[in-house]
Model the fold of this input.
Amino acid sequence: MQTEFDVIVIGAGHAGVEASLAVSKMGFTVGLVSMDINAIGRMSCNPAIGGTAKGHLVKEIDALGGVMGVIADKTGIQFKMLNRSKGPAVWSPRCQSDKDLYSLEAATQINKNTGIQIIEDMVNSLDVEDISENNNEGYKFKIKGIKTEKGNYYKSKSVIITSGTFLNAIMHTGKSQISGGRIGEKSATGLSECLLGLGFVTGRLKTGTPPRLDINTIDFSKTEEQAGDSSPVAFSYRTDKSSFPSQKQISCFITYTNADTHDILRTGFEDSPMFTGRIKGIGPRYCPSIEDKISRFSEKPRHHIFLEPETLDGETIYMNGFSTSLPVEVQEKAARTIPGLEKVKIVKQGYAVEYDFFPTYQTKLTLETKIVSGLYVAGQINGTSGYEEAAAQGFVAGVNAALKLKNEEPFILKRSEGYIGVLIDDLINKTPDEPYRMFTSSAEYRLILRQDNADIRLMQKGYELGLIDRELIDNLNQKIQLIHDAKNFFDKNTLLPKDVNSFLSSVGSSEITQGEFISSLIKRNFVNTKELLNYIINTDGLKDKRLVKRVLDNEEVLEQIDIEIKYSGYIKRQNDVVETFNKNEELKIPENFKYDKLKSISAEAMEKLSKVKPRSIGQAMRISGVRPSDISALMIYMRG
Ligand SMILES: Cc1cc2nc3c(=O)[nH]c(=O)nc-3n(C[C@H](O)[C@H](O)[C@H](O)COP(=O)(O)OP(=O)(O)OC[C@H]3O[C@@H](n4cnc5c(N)ncnc54)[C@H](O)[C@@H]3O)c2cc1C
Done:
């Protein structure tokens, strides 16, 4: 049995899976220690991947060489592109997953990697060496290894903690409080206390989950059917489109709560752990429990309930929208007032879980902690919520652990480069005090950070890290070249009235009276780019028919050209803003800058800057509590 690894990853959830695979693919050995080896990549809550902004994260992880998109494609049982009626910046891919297959596939990805050894155990403390006297980066300790519940010691140069909702976790349903991080799984003890002993600060958060229902007790005829997209789109650039989707595709169903449901739920309020103060941790505001919804939005007569199959052939339905920690009897009685659920049986009750997290001002943009060199934190332990947010952080922590071992520059994505950059920048600079989830509104440059161009933005970086194959990058370069050539051609070539007027009038667009550039025709409101190109390819006036045919044969290229031309004005304006943003990011602040040298900044700025230790002026500007006058003082001092 191996007892020494380059990197140890604690926890095999969504963050742990990405972290382990990134480290291993970058050439280092991994000890993946998790309490239950059958729970690799387990979906604790809803059986779905992606959705608004989360879908962007999955596409970015995939473009960089992570696995979440690959697993989702293999195990998805309903695919949908959300927000199609809005602009392309907010289109978001989502899939319903078979949660058992998802976990099996995550385990397969780990198992086929010979550099990863899975160890079933609980880590209860870290072994560190005091280096406070001999480093100039501000670390107090250096990681040496971990100790486990079974009494084993594993040596390692680097450790990544991805403990999810498990640290000192307590599950609540009504008056019942049970120690555990997820139903049927125990809580992780010892590690929080060890981190506190090293000088870290901890906090408490909570999240909740709805009941799972027996499929045979639901009358679906009283609900509305929701089918997936007729032409599903895969998440991963590596998925073979000819055999996608690989699983049978199924429907979900919608029903609604009503006044009776709300009245019954209210009868449980006096036993509610939330309303009686037994739960101290702060919950996700954007994903409230049903009791929260009816008390905060009492004027609303009904709430949506989505009935989502948890597996393809299984017997359980996830009751999305009905997250609750009310007593079980109240959960079932209230559910039975909902159309279609009159005879429903609850197979697994809804519950809330409270757990320890570590506020992220204690962490760098690499996700390495500021106190212990070589110790990284990723996922729900950082105060986030969601599989995709966890996976993105796991990937970043894994890559940075490997780069540090290689003595190479860290991997940090800017806010202008990806949602992953926004996520980590927000975590470090704003240190959320409630569970953080990704929203498209959090990304100020969302017009350029679209889900459809994640490969163009990020795949080259994944290739440089050694996580993307040569073949993929070659395909990408051909795609970029074709987009460039076609846009250039459309910008420089005109069509005459005889070539396009009958098309323009057929789509309700005004006819032209003289030659007009193809790109300006594409820009028109009523003009669908694909229809226009399909039409003009048969006209005499089109000079390069071969080029247009190549565009029409490649859906991805066609989509990029369409968006880039139609939104060119907005995209240009956003790129100009990004240029200014990047200038401030380039103005570096020395790693261990002493802010007490700055006499003219406010006490609050001094405290926040010393805590966060920003790497650049741009980052310093985004720290809450730091004012423009503080930044001016900092810049004057730095200019010397
Ligand atoms: C009840 C519940 C409800 C949720 N509701 C939502 C929701 O509504 N929306 C949402 O977006 N997300 C929700 N989540 C959160 C979602 O499950 C997480 O965001 C996501 O799984 C976090 O991934 P992770 O990798 O950080 O941790 P997890 O997926 O939780 O995995 C952590 C892993 O670490 C292991 N582990 C922990 N400590 C140790 C240790 N000391 N030693 C060894 N192994 C250890 C655990 O066994 C586990 O396998 C919910 C989670 C739960 C439990």
Q: What stands out?
A: The radius of gyration is 26 Å. Residues 470-492 form the longest helix (23 residues).
